[in-house]
Amino acid sequence: MFQIFVDRDADNNPIARIRYSACDRYAECTKAFHEQYESIVLLPSRKEFRRKLRPVKDRMCRFCGKKSPEVTFKTAAHLIPSFLGNGFLFSDFECDDCNNFHSLFESNLTYYMGMSVPFHPNLSRARQRKVKNFENDLEVGTGIFEKIGPEVAIQIVSDGSGKNHFTIDESGKKLTVNFARKTYVPLLVYKAILKMALSAMPVDYVYKYRRAFAFLMGSYEPPTEGNMIFQVYAFVHPGPQYNYPIGIIWEKKNKDSRMNTHHFQLLFKNYSFQLALPYFDDDLWMYDGQENLLMVAPPCIDKAFAEKFGVPIFQTLNFSNKDPVKGDPQEVTFTFNEVLFKEGSIDHNDKGEGLSV
Ligand SMILES: [Zn+2]
Fold first, then answer.
1. Locate the HNH endonuclease domain: which residues (predicted)?
2. Which residues of 39-58 are buried (b: 16+ CB within 10 A; e: fewer)?
């Protein structure tokens, strides 16, 4: 879906660059974005990009400002949550107290992503993993299921009589699974992504983002309702998922343009999430009530990939709300080659005994 080129800087640290030719629908947006922004950080969750961490005694927490030994650093702090597929990117600047505090954001992101994450089999861990939705009537498992065969598979089990969890479109070769998300707070989902962005930010910028850190930690509470800065631009692409999550920090080239200095983009599974980083010191002159431009970072899907599997779908997600969202419907659609109905094993309208994809 794209190529990554790896270089080394003067200190022998890996530097990655991403390259792809955009599909027609997003060609203009890709060109416009790259005219204004360049990537300053590209963090693929791959072994080669594992960072050397500072010894515990030399650590300082980026979030609360406290140092070791005043605070402890026992827990492995993920730059990108492990449930999004990160096994290699860790930080040495997040203390255990802050890590614990951030777990609330991560839980809300998990609830928001809902059942779409377990629908992707984790090929590197071919063991069974099961996730239930909040009513406990739909279960998604990934792994090797003896009844299906030796390949890694996804098994979806519905116990929800009459809930129509599955819609099968045989002629269109599509299977849609419907369910409800667990209750989540949109602003906490936003903070989960902001926390990743602030973790990926080069250390030199941390002080200039102190308002964003204060907002993340709850000591600064600006009005959020309806504020466009709390929008997240999202793409969902059909076809195979990204092999591993990647965090990207984009920086604007022209310091005088009325655009945010930094954007954070997270590529994971079949998604691209992008947020404009708020409250950077150098951007405060733009908070004057006049219009600023929020640019959309393209989903880094190559033209040939989009032609084969379909063009990514764009969505603007508004995460400014502090109120919990209950029973939010979500659907996941699969395309398939053929359906094999095993006699007696499927009855999706009544008993919902089981369907395997
Ligand atoms: Zn801390």
1. 61-100
2. bebbbbbbeebeeeeeeeee
